[in-house]
Automatic annotation (TrEMBL):
Sequence ranges assigned to domain AMP-binding enzyme C-terminal in this UniProt record: 529-607
Name of this chain's protein: Acetyl-coenzyme A synthetase
Binding site for Mg(2+): V535, H537, V540
Provenance organism: Maritalea mediterranea
Residues annotated with N6-acetyllysine modification: K607
Gene from which the chain derives: acs
Source species taxonomy: Bacteria, Pseudomonadati, Pseudomonadota, Alphaproteobacteria, Hyphomicrobiales
Amino acids binding ATP: G384, E385, P386, D408, T409, W410, W411, Q412, T413, D498, R513, R524
SUPFAM superfamilies to which the protein is assigned, alphabetical: Acetyl-CoA synthetase-like
Required cofactor names: Mg(2+)
Length: 646
């Protein structure tokens, strides 16, 4: 792995919210005196009743219980909207950028307030009450934000399902959380195509039986079917409705939302987050990690269907009174310069995206980014998978022009917010490392037997020693699954499921899922390391590595490789790549089999689904497992057809 160290750019250090000394001092306080630290941090939120009890948590198996600020009362929508009205009513809360480059809208805090209140009143008319679950299946239009905030206004629990999911996946999620109301749109737009959202809901409701009302937002205006008695047009329901809705008083531990994990490793889990701790954590992490200052234009490219969209498009930024950009489209429409054009158009200061997008744009060629100005950018973020040092360097050089701070944020749906991440003005970065823990987060590396590794330089599974306010509270309707998934294997710890290496400087490097660790001739290796070596080759745009049973070595190294646009697969190139990996990492990591793949199976959030690649490599196609969260199932057929024989 790359051993280069980048010092925080001087420009950023000179104006930073958090210097290195401040980080060190606050981090020490946060772990030595969590009560005191979080009592202070809770003040960033407007409470209807201030909490007097701060932390009440135990990871003791099987009695795991997590409560933060448990006697506090608040309302999330008030924190995200109402409290900014005094000073910033006419400032932009949300910049919406449509799928087509000439469509956008600026929504002020005052407008947001009226629209969210109206949405909340419509939900009430439909019979939604505090504690009810509402499924939201919307494209990236402002109504998605209104709907989510409206739920928080009246104390309903939203479950947002990404608009790219199939009817089956939607039905499963509606049933799992028992929602009686679904909010959708006639159609969505993505990359110049329409997505038949309402038709998908109709299909899903053949298998989901508890739904009484479907609220439909008119978006494209194309014809759709409406079912009498069940389906309601939003604009009709909202006609003449009151523009004020009194916010519900919520206890800090009342459920805020349910969100299903991406399903990279198995059946999605209904992660439950609660109100007070989540909001404190989302807003603090957003401000500190992005070195956010009032007036900044902030853009997170995720979809609100993922936790990144929840914490870092909506709740964190709006709680901080930020201007947050919401993008309906995709990175390569109309072409691969779209992200950079949007950055220039809206003068974006903070930009947050995923390695999968960075690798794809890198693969498309530098010409798309070279024409852009990008001088407004100050902070660049990444999340979702380990970022290969090669992609990190490209991001830094071509997008950041060497003057931006890069924050590689490691976290999970389960953690609610950032866990391991650099701070722009405080942490020197190393490409490919998420660097250091956030306040209150105590990472520990354990070996397979559960022994804590005390030396600084070590490798193993990544666990967290104590609770933080943004932590999930349970798996909805299945507390046993919560306890067994996260607290049973390594008693007394939260188990992340990720493998990790800590280097001599105490920097953390996520090596991939624990299930993805290879054991080649007795040597344990993370898949991320071999993948990064492959991506570092100038003809490779993306790579995924899995193990397969090997008579001699125990496990062999099977590599799926996507080439840069314009490169041709050949046996020569396979040989070249094999030698390249031997040189970059060592003979032990040498690929046994290389398959050129035009596409890799990815989740809808863009993560490579290695469990499917493992099955293909093992010649075991009968049991591919849950593929409902795959973005493009046809990729799998191609992989099976062209697999490498041995
Ligand atoms: P499932 O839990 O259903 O398998 P998932 O783990 O992909 O799905 P998410 O919660 O969206 O669902 O993703 C969290 C995971 O993403 C982390 O556990 C880690 O494996 C990976 N990840 C996220 N950010 C980073 C990062 N900056 N570096 C390395 N890995 C990351
Ligand atoms: Mg996970």
């Amino acid at each position: 792995m790359s051993s280069d160290i980048y010092q925080p750019p001087e420009d950023i250090v000179s104006r930073t919210l958090t210097t290195k000394d401040q980080y060190d001092a606050l981090y020490a306080q946060s772990v030595n005196d969590p009560e005191g630290f979080w009592k202070e941090q809770a003040k960033r939120i407007d409470w209807m009743k201030e909490p007097t009890k701060i932390k009440n948590t135990t990871f003791e198996y099987p009695d795991v219980s997590i409560k933060w600020f448990e006697d506090g009362e608040l309302n999330v929508s008030v924190n995200c909207i109402d409290r900014h009205l005094k000073d910033r009513a006419d400032e932009t809360a949300i910049i919406w950028e449509g799928d087509e480059p000439d469509t956008d809208e600026h929504i002020t805090y005052a407008q947001l307030h009226r629209r969210v209140c109206r949405f909340a009143n419509v939900l009430k008319e439909l019979g939604v009450k505090k504690g009810d679950r509402v499924t939201i299946y919307l494209p990236m239009i402002p109504e998605a934000a209104y709907a989510m905030l409206a739920c928080t206004r009246i104390g309903a629990v939203h479950s947002v399902v990404f608009g790219g999911f199939s009817p089956e996946a939607l039905a499963g999620r509606i049933n799992d959380c028992d929602s009686a109301v679904v909010i959708t749109a006639d159609e969505g737009r993505r990359g110049g195509k329409t997505v038949p959202l309402k038709a998908n809901v109709d299909e899903a409701l053949k298998h989901a039986h508890g739904v009484e009302k479907v609220l439909v937002v008119e978006n494209t205006g194309n014809d759709i079917k409406m079912k009498g008695g069940r389906d309601v047009w939003w604009h009709e329901a909202a006609n003449g409705i009151d523009e004020f809705c009194k916010p519900e008083r919520m206890n800090a531990e009342d459920p805020l939302f349910i969100l299903y994990t991406s399903g990279s490793t198995g059946t999605p889990k209904g992660v439950l987050h609660t109100t007070g701790g989540y909001l404190v954590y989302a807003s603090l992490t957003h401000e500190v990690t992005f070195d956010y200052r009032q007036g900044d234009i902030y853009w997170c490219t995720a979809d609100v269907g993922w936790v990144t969209g929840h914490s870092y498009i909506l709740y964190g930024p709006l709680a901080n009174g930020a201007t947050t950009l919401m993008f309906e489209g995709v990175p390569n429409y109309p072409d691969a310069s779209r992200f950079w054009q949007v950055c220039d158009k809206h003068k974006v200061n903070i930009f947050y995206t995923a390695p999968t997008a960075i690798r794809a744009l890198m693969g498309a060629g530098d010409k798309y980014v070279e024409g852009a100005d990008l001088s407004s950018l100050r902070i660049l973020g990444t999340v979702g998978e380990p970022i290969n040092p090669e992609a990190w360097e490209w991001y830094n050089k071509h997008v950041g022009r060497g003057k931006c701070a890069i924050v590689d944020t490691w976290w999970q749906t389960e953690t609610g917010g950032f866990m391991i991440t650099p701070l722009p003005g405080a942490t020197p970065t190393k490409p490919g490392s998420a660097t250091k823990p956030f306040y209150g987060v105590q990472p520990e590396i354990l070996d397979q037997e559960g022994k804590v590794q005390t030396e600084t330089e070590t490798e193993g599974v990544l666990c967290i020693k104590d609770s933080w306010p943004g932590q999930m509270r349970t798996v909805y309707g299945d507390h046993k699954r919560f306890v067994s998934t996260y607290f049973e294997t390594y008693k007394g710890y939260y188990f992340s499921g990720d493998g990790c290496r800590r280097d001599k400087d105490g920097y953390y490097w996520i090596t991939g899922r624990v299930d993805d660790v290879l054991n080649v001739s007795g040597h344990r290796m993370g898949t991320a390391e071999i993948e990064s070596a492959l991506v570092a080759h100038d003809k490779v745009s993306e790579a995924a590595v899995v193990g397969y049973p090997h008579d001699v070595k125990g496990q062999g190294v099977y590599c799926y490789v996507t080439l840069m646009t314009g490169e041709e697969p050949s046996d020569e190139l396979k040989k070249e790549l094999r030698n390249w990996v031997r040189k970059e990492i060592g003979p032990i990591a040498s690929p046994d089999l290389i398959q050129f793949a035009p596409g890799l199976p990815k989740t809808r959030s863009g993560k490579i689904m290695r469990r499917i690649l493992r099955k293909v490599a093992e010649n075991d196609f009968g049991s591919l497992g849950d593929t409902s969260t795959l973005a493009d199932p046809s990729v799998v057929d191609d992989l099976i057809e062209n697999r490498e024989n041995r």
